[in-house]
Amino acid sequence: MEIHLRELRYFVAAAEELNVTRAAERLFVSQPALSKQLRALERQLGFTLFDRVPSGLALTRQGTALLPVARDLLARWDEGLDLVRQAAPSGTLVIGLQTAVGRGIQAEALRRFRERMPGWMVSLRVVGWEDPSAGLSDGSSDVAFVWLPAPEGVATRVLATERRFVAMPENHRLAAREEIDFAELRGEPFVALPETAGPLRDFWLGGPGTIIGAEAASPDGVFEAVLAGLGLVLLSEGNAELYRRPGLVARPVSGLSPARLALAWRAADRRPAVTAFVHSFG
């Protein structure tokens, strides 16, 4: 049996809120995705953690017994991870990212970081869109480049604000347009992020009610789905340049709020290396 930290965090949030909707908002995931994860955890454990009641959730005897254990395990993991990271004067700063950053954003900041933290290495880690925090929530990343909105408990600094574009096959009926109003795309299927991406999934679908033709958890998966005719995809103006593909065109979309690329870190993280990296962006 393998129980992951994320599943324990989901359980603790649901047990403390006793309401799936509030717990999902706190965790920054969709309500169906959280319910699915809780049921999966119950199947792995072999017993029921919650009774479903009219007011929401009620802990079973097993759930009540597990709650302090789960809290303790999560607290000990977080404390242990901090101790390990602080054990040496040098180390590795892990930077999570879900799409290419480009835009001339990283190079100068990395130079400043190395000046502030000599001896430190930087590791870039690609994280699938199943985790909208890009590794911050489970501690596998120290800082991250994310698209807003960001999960609860994450501090952010906006680095770029860009128009949203739509990518489509070059033979699409709207491909010749200079600009497309989002209202004209309402009947089109779109490629969606995984349900666990929560509000970020809705943002890149242009809001609720959009038809979903396929799901993908990485940029390569998204563009393969678009080329296969499974749906269109919204992306930022900068990423429209970074992810050019033969057979695809990208057009600006009116009627949508802009996309914001941000540097993110855990709000409670005061480690010198994290602070130095944040300050490297001015």
TrEMBL record:
One term under GO cellular component: protein-DNA complex
Stored Pfam families: HTH_1, LysR_substrate
Gene Ontology MF term list: DNA binding; DNA-binding transcription factor activity
Domain HTH lysR-type: 1-60
Signal peptide positions on this chain: none
Keywords noted in UniProt: DNA-binding, Transcription, Transcription regulation
Family to which this protein belongs: Belongs to the LysR transcriptional regulatory family.
Listed name of the protein: DNA-binding transcriptional LysR family regulator
Species per Swiss-Prot/TrEMBL record: Nonomuraea dietziae
